[in-house]
Write a structure and sequence with these properties.
heterodimer, A: mainly alpha, 11 helices, B: alpha/beta, Glycerol-3-phosphate (1)-acyltransferase, 7-stranded mixed β-sheet, about 40% helix, Phosphatidate cytidylyltransferase (chain A)
């Protein structure tokens, strides 16, 4: 067993241990409170969804590079579907949207898989953003054209381009950091961002007072600060996964977590604009894929490019 | 002979105990078997009546039934993967009660969409009412329509009906056998900008004839965007099927009043598009 595999195994054991604790905690709560307490039931539904995600992610890690790329390609597909369900479109956009789903998305992940950095960092913002409006315009319907094009492009940006920067971390070449450890860098990013979110939520409920944008979301400055600090601490503890030193790992974790939390606010604004509470109902207890991954989606490109700038 | 062979299957299948999935007692007796009903409900005697073919069919019937189940499973998985179809049980619970789901109709994907988002125990007892001229056009459709979806086939064209084919009688037979139905009361796909075409009288007739059966308005949202007319590639957008509160034909209610009320109940389930420009 290579050292990377051994570390994946240890991580999986650690996370499963944490999940088991959460499950036991939920069962104890369930036994103590009345039957069918909605808060406890929501918590248990979420824990079950987390279990599913942990298991899927671990399987993808074991399958290696291809597993991770396929997993995120599907997550992109699900997120793009949630996003485009809510956007403005006309029949004139049908072909452009179909191309987005069935050509742009697979190509982007193919380029990531092949490691063609010069292409996957510009393919969507340059080629897709110029070609798809041409396809729409050729169908001749100018009604709300700018809005339709802009919304479609944002959907591709968020759901495909940003998301694909998570598996793109596999392709970063850092001196003295073996290529097969890129997988661990992904684990690092996702874990620190998710831990930050979780504790932001927890502390926001406990001690949060000042809402950041009262009209938009329940996020508070206090909760966010605690979340970022916890993410940084988690980043320090997980520094052995990364090519960074402990201090740098903490700084990167704090940065990723902060960007992710503001990303979360952006998504709250979009949802408010479209009058929905969740992006979809595909993950029980969590809403949609976009709800689950919003902060990772925002953090990934920033994390990728800064790592690339400093270490690449 | 032709009427006889499915009975051998009936004897086997009726013995299986009812699954205790439904919290309420079943209001109607279950259809005896998948195939026997498919036969009895089919309005057209499938044109091979020679004893030899019938015999062959009965030997093939088991694999055929299995194939129908498998194809059904594949269709429901495909529909769920492509459209992530979600059922919104607004006015009813997803329990096994005899119902007529009446829905808006804009594309050929509508029926598989409702069918796929029903839980399996409801799906087993539901029979879409579908056009015979469409579903008997070729062998593949004749397999998928009557056998996979277990459709109640009716002929929309009076002039083409064979002697003794009464569409309403087929529908009532299916209801009397305990099946739930899916119907599209507009009679045709709605190609207009209006939310619904005027309803045909079939819904009223069955509500009048079988007043105990719940008539459930069922709105399918987003299908026009998934597959606008004239397009070939479906977009994998999320589709929602909303089930509203059941309605019944009032004792003294006139036909047109009822159809108007049913149509309003259905349109009332459509999600508002205010957030779009």
């Amino acid at each position: 067993m290579t050292s990377t595999n051994a570390e994946i195994l240890w991580l999986a054991i650690g996370v499963c241990g944490l999940m088991t604790l959460l499950s036991i905690f939920g069962e104890v709560l369930r036994a103590r409170t009345d039957v069918n307490n909605p808060v406890v039931e929501t918590f248990m539904t979420r824990v079950r969804s987390w279990w599913g995600m942990v298991i899927l992610f671990t399987l993808a890690l074991i399958a290696g590079k291809i597993g991770i790329i396929v997993l995120f390609a599907f997550a992109s597909f699900a997120a793009l579907r949630e996003f485009l369900t809510l956007t403005n479109k006309r029949q004139a956009d049908h072909l452009a949207l179909a191309l987005g789903f069935f050509v742009v998305l697979p190509l982007q992940y193919l380029f990531v898989g092949l490691g063609w950095q010069a292409l996957y960092t510009v393919f969507i913002p340059v080629y897709a953003f110029l070609m798809l409006p041409i396809v729409s315009a050729l169908r001749g319907n100018a009604d709300r054209f700018l809005i339709r094009v802009a919304e479609t492009q944002w959907a591709l940006m968020i759901a495909v381009f940003c998301m694909s920067h998570v598996p793109a971390l596999l392709m970063i070449d850092v001196e003295g950091y073996p290529a097969d450890r890129g997988i661990l860098l992904i684990v690092f990013l996702i874990m620190v961002v998710q831990i930050g979110d979780l504790l932001d939520f927890f502390f926001g409920r406990r001690i949060g007072k000042t809402r950041i944008i009262p009209k938009l979301s329940a996020k508070t400055w206090e909760g966010m600060a605690c979340g970022v600090v916890c993410a940084a601490l988690a980043g320090g503890l997980l520094a052995w996964l990364t090519p960074f030193g402990v201090g740098m790992a903490m700084a990167m974790a704090a940065l990723a977590s902060t960007v992710g939390m503001f990303g979360n606010l952006v998504f709250a604004a979009i949802k408010r604009d479209r009058g929905v509470k969740d992006w979809s109902h595909l993950i029980p207890g969590q809403g949609g894929f976009t709800d689950q991954l919003d902060s990772v989606i925002f953090a990934a490109p920033v994390f990728y490019h800064i790592t690339h700038l400093i270490y690449g | 002979m032709n009427a006889f062979w499915p009975n051998m299957l009936v004897a086997k299948t009726t013995k299986t105990p009812l699954k205790p999935t439904s919290p309420l007692p079943l209001t109607a007796k279950r259809p005896a078997s998948f195939l026997s009903l498919g036969r009895r409900g089919a309005p057209f005697p499938i044109p091979q009546t020679s004893a030899k073919i019938t015999q062959m069919k009965s030997i093939l019937s088991l694999p055929r039934r299995a194939a129908a189940k498998l194809v059904g499973l594949a269709i429901s998985l495909l529909v769920r993967f492509l459209t992530a179809v979600r059922a919104n049980w607004q006015g009813i619970e997803p329990i096994n009660k005899q119902r007529v789901y009446f829905a808006n109709h804009v594309s050929n994907a509508d029926m598989p969409m409702i069918w796929s988002c029903l839980p399996p125990n409801l799906r087993r007892d539901v029979r879409p009412v579908a056009a015979a001229d469409y579903w008997l056009k070729n062998k593949l459709r004749a397999f998928v329509g009557p056998e996979v979806f277990n459709c109640v086939l009716v002929d929309r064209r009076p002039e083409a009906r064979t002697d003794g084919h009464d569409p309403m009688q087929n529908i009532l037979d299916a209801l009397d056998a305990g099946s739930s139905l899916i119907i599209f009361p507009e009679g045709n796909r709605n190609m207009t900008e209006d939310p619904l075409l005027p309803f045909k009288s079939g819904l009223y007739n069955m509500g009048k004839a079988r007043p105990d059966v719940d008539l459930v308005p069922t709105w399918i949202a987003n299908v026009t965007e998934i597959m606008p007319k004239g397009e070939v590639i479906p977009l994998p957008l999320i589709c929602t099927v909303t089930f509203g509160e059941p309605i019944h034909v009032g004792d003294t209610e006139a036909k047109d009043d009822f159809l108007k009320r049913a149509s309003d109940a259905l349109v009332g389930l459509a999600p508002s598009q205010e957030d779009r420009l």
